[in-house]
Design goal:
two-stranded antiparallel ribbon, 8-stranded parallel barrel, binds flavin mononucleotide, single chain, alpha/beta, 35% helix
Length: 384
């Protein structure tokens, strides 16, 4: 019955073994200075075992000074060997897996208890960044993309979702009066120039470039609204954004929604708001429709809440061409072997949406599944 999910896919000049995507999931388990730890390696080796077609490595910060998570991974020269090892370990187990590095800056979501909270917009929390500082952050994204390529990754995700800096700059509420704010032209400059430079700098022409966006963040003046004072969803700017991504010749867009720190159930539906997943299906289909007749591929999000029903829904989304790839987040922690187990008819540990992993992230401790992973089950009890 499950057929389409196991079919090969195309993305840029690459082929994927199937349509399963392991979405980026922060583990908050880096070693000192944001370097790759053994816990990080173990997590991705498990995903490699699971035969996911695409593995998106969690948010990697372009800076050690503005972090949302105390033990976030930082992609810089000092940590490069660790990232090379990470890629090698995944490829040793699963040479076909496409590995994408998500690069980010936490901006106003940076935690002021251990990091500097900085803002794009005078309407956001944190110290307002100067024109030159934003230029330097953009250079940081470009440099990280180069490091990702050097580490052996197959591509990057220029994170532009969930309220992080890449999203904050796109919002109508970015009312800065310099070249980074106000007009649509200015608000998209960070993305436009960053992507153009990354494309021009890449050494391998099959190195994938894409980004993750929140179609609607569910907050006044944020992504998916039409003006700084508007709350109602209006996808006009998101259509323009998708068209811009295509004009920039990006290979894919990963569709998400919400701001986990502010509108969490929109990003990751929980039992009491399970039907939120319907918005994700709608946004994904909308993106696919907007990008029809282009080469860009679309990845959908938030399938974990559907448990075993996710496969049927995924098949329908794929067969109707409403998406190209299907992404799971929390499910990758509950059972990193899911695609392989499904293929071989083995029983799967389905995510219960207990929010344990999110609570760990909020508590600033290592993140894992407290329901099915013995290590994290114990660790959670010790840290309660
Ligand atoms: C603990 C945790 C960590 C996450 N880390 C990231 C991240 O690094 N980057 C990102 O874009 N989304 C992140 N997300 C969002 C997930 O990728 C995903 O979009 C969300 O969980 C909804 O999908 P699901 O319902 O399949 O879990 C995270 C979510 C959780 C719960």
């Amino acid at each position: 019955m499950i057929k389409q999910l196991f079919e090969k896919g195309n993305i840029g000049h690459k082929i994927t073994r199937n349509r399963f995507v392991a979405q980026p999931m922060e583990g908050n388990c880096a070693d000192k200075g944001g370097s790759v730890s053994q816990l990080t390696i173990n997590k991705y080796k498990n995903l490699a075992e699971g035969n996911w077609g695409i593995i998106i490595v969690e948010a990697l910060s372009v800076t050690p000074t503005s972090l949302a998570r105390k033990n976030a991974l930082v992609l810089n020269e000092k940590n490069l060997d660790g990232f090379k090892k990470l890629v090698n370990e995944i490829k040793l187990i699963n040479p076909e897996a496409l590995i994408l590095f998500q690069i980010t800056h936490s901006g106003s979501i940076s935690n002021p208890n251990f990091s500097e909270q900085v803002a794009i917009s005078p309407l956001s929390e944190g110290r307002l960044l100067s024109t030159d500082e934003i230029e330097k952050i953009k250079e940081g994204f470009v440099k990280c993309a180069r490091l990702a390529e050097e580490a052996g990754a197959d591509g990057i995700d220029y994170k532009s979702c969930h309220g992080y800096l890449g999203a904050e700059i796109l919002r109508p509420m970015n009312i800065r009066n310099d070249k980074w704010g106000g007009s649509w032209e200015n608000r998209t400059r960070f993305l436009r120039e960053g992507i153009e430079e990354i494309s021009a700098n890449r050494k391998r022409n099959d190195f994938l470039i894409g980004c993750r966006i929140s179609m609607y963040e569910g907050m006044r003046g944020c992504e998916g609204t039409s003006a700084p004072e508007e709350l109602i969803e209006d996808l006009s700017e998101q259509i323009a954004l998708l068209q811009l991504l295509n004009k920039l010749k990006m290979d894919y867009v990963n569709i998400s929604a919400g701001i986990p720190a502010k509108t969490p159930t929109l990003t990751r539906p929980v039992q009491s708001a399970a039907l939120m997943y319907l918005h994700h299906l709608r946004y994904t289909q909308f993106a696919k429709q907007t990008l029809s007749n282009t080469n860009m591929k679309v990845i959908g999000s938030a399938y974990s809440i559907l448990r075993e029903d996710a496969f049927k829904v995924a098949e329908e989304m794929l067969s109707k061409h409403y998406t190209d790839f299907v992404g799971w987040g929390r499910q990758t922690l509950a059972d990193p072997l899911m695609p392989k187990k499904l293929e071989y008819g083995e029983s799967i540990n389905f995510c219960t949406a207990c929010s344990g992993c999110s609570k760990m992230m909020i508590k600033q401790i290592n993140v894992g599944c407290i329901m099915f992973d013995e290590h994290y089950k114990r660790y959670w009890k010790e840290n309660l």
